[in-house]
Fold this sequence. Notes:
The structure holds four protein chains of four kinds.
Chain A (H helix, E strand, L loop, with lengths): L1 H5 L6 E10 L2 E11 L4 E6 L5 H8 L7 E6 L2 E2 L5 H6 L2 E4 L11 H6 L8 H19 L14 H14 L4 E5 L7 H16 L3 E5 L3 H7 L2 E6 L2 E7 L5 H9 L17 E11 L5 E11 L3 E5 L6 H9 L5 E6 L2 E2 L7 H7 L2 E4 L3 H5 L6 H5 L18 H14 L16 H13 L5 E5 L7 H16 L3 E5 L3 H7 L2 E6 L2 E6 L6 H8 L8
Parallel strand pairs in A: 3-8, 3-9, 6-7, 7-8, 13-18, 13-19, 16-17, 17-18
Antiparallel strand pairs in A: 1-2, 1-4, 4-5, 9-10, 11-12, 11-14, 14-15, 19-20
Chain B lengths: L2 E4 L9 H16 L4 E4 L5 H11 L5 E4 L4 H10 L5 E4 L8 E6 L1 H15 L4 E8 L2 H17 L4 E8 L8 H13 L4 E5 L3 H11 L3 E6 L10 E7 L1 H11 L6 E5 L6 E3 L11 H16 L7 H4 L6
Parallel strand pairs in B: 1-2, 1-3, 3-4, 4-5, 5-11, 6-7, 6-8, 8-9, 9-10
Antiparallel strand pairs in B: 10-12
Chain C lengths: L2 H26 L4 H13 L2 H26 L7 H18 L5 H30 L3 H23 L22 H5 L15 H18 L1 H11 L1 H6 L4 H28 L10 H11 L4 H24 L5 H16 L1 H19 L1
Helix pairs in contact in C: 1-14, 1-15, 2-3, 2-13, 3-8, 3-11, 3-12, 3-13, 4-5, 4-6, 4-11, 4-12, 5-6, 5-11, 8-9, 8-13, 9-11, 12-13, 12-14, 13-14, 14-15
Bound molecules: adenosine-5'-triphosphate (2 copies) and magnesium ion (2 copies).
The site of one adenosine-5'-triphosphate (ATP) has 13 residues of chain A, from helix 15.
Pfam families (chain D): BPD_transp_2
Membrane topology (chain D): Multi-pass membrane protein
Protein name (chain D): ABC transporter permease
Amino acid sequence: MAGAAGGQRVPAIELRGISKAFGPVQANRDISLTVMPGTIHGIVGENGAGKSTLMSILYGFYKADAGEIRIGGQPNQISDSQAAIRAGIGMVFQHFKLVEPFSVLENVILGVEDGRLLRPSLARARGALKRLAEDYELHVDPDARIEDLGVGMKQRVEILKALYRQADILILDEPTGVLTPAEADHLFRILENLKSQGKTIILITHKLREIMAITDTVSVMRRGQMVATLETAQTSPGELAELMVGRKVLLHMDKKPAAPGRTVLAVENLRVTDIDGVERLRGVSLSVRAGEILGIAGVAGNGQSQLLGVLGGTLRGSGTVRIEGREIDLAARDAGQSRRAAGIAHVPEDRQREGLVMEFLAWENMIFGYHHDPACQRNRALMDNAAIRAMTAERMARFDVRPPDPDLPARSFSGGNQQKIVLAREIERNPALLIVGQPTRGVDIGAIEFIHQRLIALRDAGAAILLVSVELDEILSLSDRIAVMFDGRIMGERRPEETDEKDLGLMMAGMRGKAA
Amino acid sequence: EPALIYDLGGKFDKSFNEAAFNGAERWKAETGGSYREIELQSEAQRQQALRRFAEAGLNPIVMAGFAFGSVLEEVAADYPDTTFQIIDTRVDAPNVRAIEYSEHEGSYLVGMMAAMASKSGTVGFVGGMDIPLIRKFACGYAQGVKAVNPDATVIQNMTGTTPAAWADPVKGGELARAQIAQGADVIYAAAGSTGVGVLQTAADQGILSIGVDSNQNHLHPGQVLTSMIKRVDLAVYEAFTAGADLETGYFVLGLAEDGVGYALDEHNKDLVSAEMIAAVEEAKARIVSGDLAVHDYMTDNACPVK
Amino acid sequence: MPKWADLVLIPLVSLVLAFGLSALVILAIGEDPVAAVRMMVSGALGSTYAWGYTLYYATNFIFTGLAVAVAFQARLFNIGGEGQAMLGGLGVALICLSLPWPHWALALPAAALGAALFGAAWAAVPAWLQATRGSHIVITTIMFNFIAAAVLNYLLVNVMRPIGSMDPATAKFPSGTHLPSLHDLLAPFGIAFSRAAPANITFLIAIAACVLVWLIVWRTRLGYEIRAYGQSEPAAIYAGIRPVRIVMAAMLISGALAGLMAVNNVMGEAERLVLNAVEGAGFIGIAVALMGRSHPFGVFLAALLFGFLYQGGAELALWTDIPRELIVVIQALVILFTGALDNMVRMPLERLFLALRRGRA
Amino acid sequence: MDFATVLQILDSTVRLATPLLLACLAGLFSERAGIFDIGLEGKMLASAFFSAAVAAVTGSVWLGLGAGIAASLVMAAIHGAASISFRGNQLISGVAINFLAAGLTVVIAQTWFSQGGRTPSLIGAARFEPITLPLAETLQPVPILGPIYHELISGHTLPVYLAFALVPVSWWVLYHTRFGLRLRAVGESPEALDTAGVSVVATRYAAVAICGVLCGIAGAYLATALQAGFVKDMTAGRGFIALAALIFAKWRPWQALGATLLFGFLQAIALRYQNIDLGGVVVPVQVMDALPYVLTVVILAGFVGRAIPPRAGGEPYVKER
Ligand SMILES: Nc1ncnc2c1ncn2[C@@H]1O[C@H](COP(=O)(O)OP(=O)(O)OP(=O)(O)O)[C@@H](O)[C@H]1O
Ligand SMILES: Nc1ncnc2c1ncn2[C@@H]1O[C@H](COP(=O)(O)OP(=O)(O)OP(=O)(O)O)[C@@H](O)[C@H]1O
Ligand SMILES: [Mg+2]
Ligand SMILES: [Mg+2]
């Protein structure tokens, strides 16, 4: 155990037997954790493993159902965030907790004002921010409105908030998910700097590379439980991955070489501007042929979502998109319908937000988007619910959805099974083109294999597939060609066998490939 | 058992409905009998109340307000054994007693008093809902004012065009303020409980006011010049007393029948001089005898004086 | 928590709480709740006359309740039932007065169409503003209630009032538009129903509307899309469902249903258009839809309950000193407990069921 | 229109705007904290009744005011419980409160006073008396300014001055104090406030309580200053106009003053002139009545600048689903 190396030193944080349930979901189960002062402690685990929940309990945001917390050796109830702040804990949440229309200064002083009036607090915070900026290279305009800042800057504000509160223990929940590699490197320098000043840091991340690079110790969570705590130096990514998912991880996918046919999708000079007037796609051109998978790699937020959105019909854009030679009207009103009619199937990035109606029953979801199909209709007025139910039951069996009950609401399936429902719906259409975003996000390893096999099978059956994923492993193992997106542009294309993570990483950071 | 239905504005409007209530109460006190009553909340309830009372065998059923007219025409036929009395509009049916008042005559008298009490030569009138009936009040009043002082100015305002105008004291008060600002120093309110606001403001601002329907002199003793009383109480009292044998038909009650008049009591005796009474009594005698004809607005929807 | 508990138990417990509090209010004003309930029951259910009024009110509430419920399916909160029903009345009045209708069988479909069109038109502007400009539909429909009142007020006072009439109301509709009452409808079957009560053929239309709404919402593509949009707008967009179309469709159906109420109260009962003919039925529709869990069958039951309350309350006001407003208090408590405080009931029940399940497991 | 008439109308505007202003500021505190409140009407009505009732019984307008505020606070507490503690639907809760007040006031009034749901008329010390400001009489002869001071500025009742004073006070509280910062934060992002260690529940209850107090003053003003007693439904939609004004003002105190004065002015004009003749075109009084509502719809439609409500408004704060 990590504590062994620390000898007599008092642990900065000690959690014992923490449990927490959200209704029927046991998010944390009898968790114990010890973190020594002046170290960086990593926590890894699959989506939904309970990492954020555990940290939120430590920060007083949630109340544990059972268990004990000790800070610096002292038992501490941490009844609310105020108590956590008083105990010297600061937390940067996975989803930022900032007041958007407020200025940076106002956000920084919120909750720790120096009195009933704001003026003195604001003045003091201004000075403090200046000092922190110099000490840690954390520059932000104190008068800027949060809503005008980019994600990287917002994260800086969150860190400044914690530092302004003089946190000795800093928790960062997936801080690099939204950062470019360069920004992430900058963040890690700051963390090293903080560590050297004796601060204790807990870092949650999915990226084993980061764990290996910066942490001293690492804990692994799986399904609400703490399965191991290790010295980083004495472990390997392979071991961590295995601990995370509970069995050996297959890093390679066996597949036949692709036999690309005619061009199915041809995109030229595609542009998308969001409601804030920011151009998110800046002239993307690409093509996908029948029987091949084109993987789109990139850090989240570089236009991949917009690419999927325009192709899937949830966003409007300009440029030309041709499916089997026929041009698609990018300004159509019922875009989702016309895309489906053209033969595009779409597995969205966020199944709970877009892909499914969580309150709808499985059979209702199984025709979602295709509810105008003649097969779903009994007559001109009414839908044929019985036929849809039967069709759903059959597909659920074929896709191994558990439980295979068409009359359950989507909400009551686990994440992996929800994804299978979406895939069954889209793949069973035998589409000319399947566009798919983050197909295995939050899905356990068994289901990942199943989903990957299905995608390959669809490719082999002659469909064109456009795959967007932030998981480089997934891109590398599935794609026949890889395009890298950065800042709304395609930086370049590679064949999987002629590239590696480092090469792709540089392109994802905009430092290699086509320049502006 | 007799029944009484009040119009919108409510039983305690200190005015029209309250007069009806007082009549019923007097009958109750004198005979020890009991009666049913209901205050309407909405137009749509009129029919239900009428029918329900008729179904329950109440007789006679008295309703206070012209707005029952069209409903009664329909309902009366369905209950031939029930006698209905309606006040303020004419309904011709064998089992209906319809009573109208010569409000223009009473208003003429209080108009004279207003003109005599006014120092500024400007007097006001605040009406309730803008309907011919209220114009009739206003026209009689204006004629009375001009009879005393042909140069007098009569400022006239109506509170609104819907039944809500009967129950809006705030608006009454604001209209009174406006009239006071224009120089009025006596204001006649013929506006149901809206008039309560007029009288209140007049009293607050130290000018005189004239009440309507009931004797409202007591509301602000020494500050209400008089009230144009309309003996709705008497009509209700008599109907209740007559019971089911109530004589049906159409009746108009004026000064001659003591159906309308002006109120004189301890609250306003210091405001009303002997010569005022003399002048008013003389006019009253001439009207009763037919020497003096006060124009009734409703005969031609026009008023000879402004 | 099992589904039946959510659908039946929670409304029931909420209702019991609301009625319990109402009983306390009756006690507090020095009256006897038991006697009051007895009088309400006999006054609302004790005779065919009583039933006639109860069903008449229930008919109004079915329409406004369905109106709110349909909009709720698209997660739109239509507080504008009041104004839409007012305008529906205008539609009915225009149609009934414009032609010399020979028989009600012709006048009824025309008037129903007019009511639905006018009601839908009044819902269309808030719907369009919500769909295209994101104007909060709750506020715009409230504003449209007031504007409807002003419009109707103007028309009744200045335009539609017959010459010489003092009431702000239209002329009486011609006799060719007189709808058969339940008395007329039941007489051929040998059932003696009170002649005086206003319940009429519209009650049957209301039942048909329940069935129709059920079909639309749960059996048609449009209903499927409305429900999908109501559950999740991003998902609806993903599926190619156009939000503008759904918001418009849901609100137009909702407005048409609210407008249809006028067939009952304007054409079936008053046979002329008077001010304030709606009498708050638009607001009661909210309570009805909430209690009915936005399902037509639930709406039907809740409308009967509110019809009972309304008629029972009118009887109370007639025969006792309890003011009619007591019913408004009961309504308020029902809305409060079934609509806003349902978590107060749900939270402990959920805990109970969880404990039960754990106990069994 | 002569000067005296203009003064008259403006004077009337001030009186009519006062309850709107108080209710609008009340709504501002509540909605800025993320609690939407369409129950302003009900709170005012409850306060109007209880202030009139207590003032009538005790003969003291101050006790009446206290009772009015207390009644309004009870309503606010119900709304708070429903929307903060029990995470109910705030709109439905507001609708219920409006009904509750409309019903209860009449039922209780009838029980206590047996006057058809009214209170007895208030006299003497049971009402707020107009306050003559210093030198008002002396300065009256001064041209222009004299009458303005005497007619328009002086001679109102206490709640009027209080309402106007509350505008800068509200502004200062919202933008210059710790409480204001937290209140605005909780309406925009309750989880930010929560993670900053400040209680979301307490902050929201505080805002709802302020809303209750202000609505209480508004209701008491209606019943004990503008009128002399309570009559059924006497708020007559003022709560909704205040809500409209709040949107019009885009949830800001100074703009709230402007919006309520505008709506008060519209009411004053509609009161004074039944039908307005604009050189040939006669504007019926109903147009004036409906104008505030129409204006609100136009604003909401975004044709006159967009009104963006506080982001967390209307949504209960749910940490754990
Ligand atoms: N506020 C909440 N209410 C209900 N359930 C919740 C809540 N927050 C988390 N959960 C559930 O608790 C479990 C653990 O979630 P948690 O967010 O802690 O996971 P995580 O390990 O941080 O995952 P990720 O990597 O996706 O951030 C999940 O099943 C999740 O759905
Ligand atoms: N909100 C809910 N309502 C009802 N049942 C639920 C809910 N959330 C989860 N469950 C049940 O709990 C089980 C576990 O769900 P969870 O999302 O934790 O699965 P998981 O272990 O993460 O699986 P997967 O890897 O497929 O996502 C599910 O099978 C589901 O039946
Ligand atoms: Mg997390
Ligand atoms: Mg999962």
